[in-house]
Amino acid sequence: MTETNSLVDDMPLGRQVLMGGQMLFVAFGALVLVPILTGLDPNVAFFTAGVGTLIFQLVTRRSVPIFLASSFAFIAPITFSVGQWGLPATMGGLMAAGFFYVVLSLIVRVRGSGFLYRLFPPVVVGPVIMVIGLGLAPTAISMANGTANPSINETTSIILAGVSLLTTLLVSTVAGGILKLIPILCGVAAGYFTAVFMGVVDFTAMHEAAWIGMPNFSLPEYNIRHSPPYSGINFLVR
């Protein structure tokens, strides 16, 4: 832990800002996309991710430079749960899954992480990650060709997606120095400035938004019978 903190502290401030900005944009995509796909409130996701990240950094004493965002693994069960049992029951299931993670972390602290590798070997984890990624491929395609946003025509969407992807690939393979460490940030910047130049970005909503507001929180509902399939409690019962 001390060694990790030393590496972060010894890194120049400018590089920390750039790498932190890239991590923010990487997490931002998941943080916004998952609530949109599952019918949850993105503002609640922003608030809870921020609070969770601050608690995480406090507990780990900044030993892991990471931002906690949404998990793609929960998209399918959340979508099913919201349609089957509603938002309150889904919130209860998510809290149960969170408590299950806490229990699992305590077991790891006592016994070490070795049993996890025996319980979930790479041959099991790898295909699961592949299925999650392939399941999101149609969403990526619809965003790239403009289907997900009818206000932008197909040609403009493909141009913006191409600029972002090409910039990311070129920076990650050709660039050197600090740029090679932030290819995603460069791709996001190139795509965004291209969108501004093409007149796609609309700042009206930002100008009309309130400076201070509260997310639309929902109280969870606890019901073992209707507990979503990803719930830790439901997992233990079964």
Automatic annotation (TrEMBL):
Coiled coil: none annotated. It comes from the Bacteria. It comes from Endozoicomonas gorgoniicola. Belongs to the nucleobase:cation symporter-2 (NCS2) (TC 2.A.40) family. Its main location: membrane. The lineage of its organism: Bacteria, Pseudomonadati, Pseudomonadota, Gammaproteobacteria, Oceanospirillales. Keywords: Membrane, Transmembrane, Transmembrane helix, Transport. It is found in: Membrane. The chain crosses the membrane at residues 17-37, 43-59, 66-83, 89-108, 115-137, 157-175, 182-201. The keyword Transmembrane helix applies. It is a multi-pass membrane protein. The keyword Transmembrane applies. InterPro entries: NCS2. This is Uracil permease.
